[in-house]
Amino acid sequence: MNQHSFPKHNAPATEKKAFSDTRHGIVRHDEYHWLRAANWQDVLRDPSLLDAQIRLHLEAENTYQSALMADTQELQKQLFSEMKGRIKEDDSSVPVKDGAYAYGISYVTGGQHPQYFRTPRDGGEKTILIDGDKEAASLAYFSLGGLDYSPDHKALAWSADTKGSEFYDIKIRDLSTLEDSADLLTSTAGGTVWDAASQGVFYVQMDDNHRPAKLFYHRTGTKQDQDALIYEEKDAGFFMNVSGSSLNDFVFINIQDHETSEVWLIPANNPQAKPQLVAARETGIEYSLTEGGDVFYILTNIDGAKDFKIMSAPVSAPQKQNWTEVVAEKSGTIILDVGAYKNHLVWLERNNGLPRIVIRERSSGTEHAIAFDEEAYSLGLHGSAEYDTDVIRFSYSSMTTPSQLFDYNMVTRERVLLKTQEVPSGHVIENYVTRRLLAPAADGELVPVSILAHKDTPLDGSAPCLLYGYGAYGSSIPASFSTTRLSLVDRGFIYAIAHIRGGKDKGFAWYENGKREHKVNTFTDFIAAAKHLVAENFTRHDRIIAHGGSAGGMLMGAITNMAPEAFGGIIADVPFVDVLNTMLDDSLPLTPPEWPEWGNPIASETDYRTIASYSPYDNVSAQNYPPILATAGLTDPRVTYWEAAKWVAKLRDQSTSGNPVLFKINMEAGHGGVSGRFSQLEEVAYNYAFALKVADRL
Q1: Which of 280, 320, 478, 638 could cross-link 671 (Cys pair, CB 3.0–4.6 Å)?
Q2: Predicted local distance difference test score (pLDDT) of residue 262
Q3: MF terms per GO, please (predicted)?
Q4: Structure pTM?
């Protein structure tokens, strides 16, 4: 459909080269395999090393998509201007108090990157600690990573990625002079944790395959090659990160894949002490620690608690045999996050897609909750940087209500509104409506769908709809406020979020029933959401533009193969579409840690056949595909650029509809797209222009 709204240009011809792979006696042919750069590890660090033939092909793709979208240039500028106009350019966060200071983030008018600042605790002159715009000057890409001030507030460890490849360099800044020392830690994951004496930092170094393999301790003022190796994770199937406790007593080494976790402890006052194991990794058992004075609180799914429970253990003996239940599991209500303070225990939970914050007085066990009345909304638990406090911070928004930030007194139960998100160009809440639908899936499950529309948009089936979904790793998509999507809604679009299986919107079982052998439920849930929107007369199938990114891009590829007639267009950002080939390539950064999510097709023929049955690239066939837009980043270590490149080539070869397939690749960015808040809006404007073009709303 709508093929005539795109000008006629010849798509790049993608050369086919013979290549085959045999696993479990099954032969697969992959004529576009050559688009995978043999030196991809080198390209992540230096994009200029990309093979010349591949570069020419990718540049040809950019030329093609630019030609097909040329008539939207003015629309893109208009969309960008609208979205920029909804941003308070000189915005500033409400500073978080910690000791003698309060720390926050601000922007300047016209600035792309944040400033990190502090003031005296109760207000006063602002000191800019890091100026993102200054640091980004002359760089094609710049993204701030971790920012961690020392316990004595005299130094700041900060990191930045300058390629989009998520290799971060860490520097140490003296906060009395605001100058960086000679310390330079390269090829890191970006995060740091200071020791208790403020003499050095812990950090994780990435290996050549972009995996977090080694934890080091760096004493400030020394060279990186002198850093002490504290822990090495030798199983490529596990991620590793380092975090600290709110009392600066402990450093946590957190090791996990998508279903199993392990934590080691280091006393923060003895940074080179031998790490202490809390509970050895056990397949399917997850846990994390929060310090609560003389106890640790443990969020875990042990003993079959699929929706998690909270336990405690003495700090002096935190091993599993000493865990005692504090908050029991409630089936269908998943506990997502825990915070501990001197007098209170706080947790964020979700039931049937809606969150609430629960507060328990530690001495009495008395509980109360914070919740809201809208049909669909989002809560964020920000807690406090300090342990001895009765005041925590949380945020609230809905699809119609801009974000509000509150301080909440856990004793008096008083809420103080600190800030409401400003929309400089104006936002009248009453002009918009939000709804929550339940779409029946084929197996009888009900899939929540959050809806945003302008009050004047006719709900008679004539409205176009952008339907967004993700559905993987247990990640839930909140029904939160977004200024960008208003540009579609104000043009008569319905914006919908399908809370499909693969996320934890309805508890852990909702996630379990959307992974591995149940993965197809993710795709059929999304199709069911589309069908329900049509059945309820919100829109028509040829007016639905589906949108998803990363694992949500896999969703886009799968639903396009399974039900191309159900969608008028597809937007797939950095799409994970070459699933089988990627899961068969254990040299790629995320492959071994991803096996628990998707299955291991190297070791298991069953897993191989399951993934092969839905892998979008492997299931492209001769059928009428709708117009499709795919995006990618050359230095993306998470979903490599060649996944989208191969998928697009195969779609063009197979599609019988004549509809265009566009591929937009950023040659100077990675998984998150371009850096800079305004440059990112330009990418959103491009996607929305495509959606409007497909819906004949130019």
Answers
A1: 638
A2: 98
A3: serine-type endopeptidase activity
A4: 0.94
